[in-house]
Amino acid sequence: MIEFIKGFVDDITPEHIVIDHHGLGYQIHAPNPYSYTKSRKEEVVVYTYQHVREDILALYGFPSREEKALFMKLLNVTGIGPKGALAILASGNPSQVIEAIENEDDTFLVKFPGVGKKTARQIILDLKGKLGDVAALYAPDLFNHEEIEQTETANHALNEAIEALKVLGYAEREIKKITPSLQQENLSTDQYVKKALQKLLK
C-alpha cells in the first residue's frame, strides 16, 4: 500500500493529476484536480489509496489523511465504489458530508452524482456514529468523544455477537436482517447475542 507520494505536479486533467516523484510519474485520481493548479511549482504531498481489481490498478489521492479516511469509509458502504466516493468528495465539502450523515439528512446526500434515496439511506445506516476519527479536522464540535468511545465499544461488542451467531449456525443473510435494529442498541456482547436470538426465533 502506498501511503503518500511527495513530488511536483507535472500534469493536471479533469480526472487526475500526475505527480513527478524523482522522475517517475504517478497518475492519481483526485476529487478536485484543478485545486493543485497553484502548486505546480511547489512540492506537494498527496495521500493515496491504491485500488486493485482484476482489470484495474489505480491510485486515488487526497490533500489530507482525514479526507482519504472519509473516502475509505465511503467505500465500505454497499453500492459505492471508488468513482462514486470520489464524486461525493468532489461535489461536497467534507464537513458538510459528515454533518449530513450524522444528521440523517438524506435530502442533502441525494444531490451527489449517482446517489439515490436508497444509497443515501445506506450511507447513513453504515456510517452514522462511525466518523469521529475523520471529523477531527472538519467538524470537531460535532462529536462527543465520550459518546464516540461508547459507540466504538458497542460496535466491537456487536461484531463479537455476530461472530457468535455464525458459530451457532445462523446464516449471514439471517443475521443481516436483524443487524440494523441491533445497531440502535448499546449493549454488551452477551446482551447482543440474547437480543439477536430473540429476534431470530420470532
From TrEMBL:
<dbReference type="Pfam" id="PF07499">
    <property type="entry name" value="RuvA_C"/>
</dbReference>
<dbReference type="Pfam" id="PF01330">
    <property type="entry name" value="RuvA_N"/>
</dbReference>
<dbReference type="InterPro" id="IPR013849">
    <property type="entry name" value="DNA_helicase_Holl-junc_RuvA_I"/>
</dbReference>
<dbReference type="InterPro" id="IPR012340">
    <property type="entry name" value="NA-bd_OB-fold"/>
</dbReference>
<dbReference type="GO" id="GO:0016787">
    <property type="term" value="F:hydrolase activity"/>
</dbReference>
<keyword id="KW-0233">DNA recombination</keyword>
<dbReference type="GO" id="GO:0003678">
    <property type="term" value="F:DNA helicase activity"/>
</dbReference>
<dbReference type="InterPro" id="IPR010994">
    <property type="entry name" value="RuvA_2-like"/>
</dbReference>
<protein>
    <recommendedName>
        <fullName>Holliday junction branch migration complex subunit RuvA</fullName>
    </recommendedName>
</protein>
<keyword id="KW-0378">Hydrolase</keyword>
<keyword id="KW-0227">DNA damage</keyword>
<keyword id="KW-0234">DNA repair</keyword>
<comment type="similarity">
    <text>Belongs to the RuvA family.</text>
</comment>
<comment type="function">
    <text>The RuvA-RuvB-RuvC complex processes Holliday junction (HJ) DNA during genetic recombination and DNA repair, while the RuvA-RuvB complex plays an important role in the rescue of blocked DNA replication forks via replication fork reversal (RFR). RuvA specifically binds to HJ cruciform DNA, conferring on it an open structure. The RuvB hexamer acts as an ATP-dependent pump, pulling dsDNA into and through the RuvAB complex. HJ branch migration allows RuvC to scan DNA until it finds its consensus sequence, where it cleaves and resolves the cruciform DNA.</text>
</comment>
<dbReference type="InterPro" id="IPR036267">
    <property type="entry name" value="RuvA_C_sf"/>
</dbReference>
<dbReference type="Pfam" id="PF14520">
    <property type="entry name" value="HHH_5"/>
</dbReference>
<dbReference type="InterPro" id="IPR011114">
    <property type="entry name" value="RuvA_C"/>
</dbReference>
<dbReference type="InterPro" id="IPR003583">
    <property type="entry name" value="Hlx-hairpin-Hlx_DNA-bd_motif"/>
</dbReference>
<keyword id="KW-0238">DNA-binding</keyword>
<feature type="region of interest" description="Domain III">
    <location>
        <begin position="155"/>
        <end position="202"/>
    </location>
</feature>
<keyword id="KW-0963">Cytoplasm</keyword>
<feature type="domain" description="Helix-hairpin-helix DNA-binding motif class 1">
    <location>
        <begin position="72"/>
        <end position="91"/>
    </location>
</feature>
<comment type="subunit">
    <text>Homotetramer. Forms an RuvA(8)-RuvB(12)-Holliday junction (HJ) complex. HJ DNA is sandwiched between 2 RuvA tetramers; dsDNA enters through RuvA and exits via RuvB. An RuvB hexamer assembles on each DNA strand where it exits the tetramer. Each RuvB hexamer is contacted by two RuvA subunits (via domain III) on 2 adjacent RuvB subunits; this complex drives branch migration. In the full resolvosome a probable DNA-RuvA(4)-RuvB(12)-RuvC(2) complex forms which resolves the HJ.</text>
</comment>
<feature type="domain" description="Helix-hairpin-helix DNA-binding motif class 1">
    <location>
        <begin position="107"/>
        <end position="126"/>
    </location>
</feature>
<dbReference type="InterPro" id="IPR000085">
    <property type="entry name" value="RuvA"/>
</dbReference>
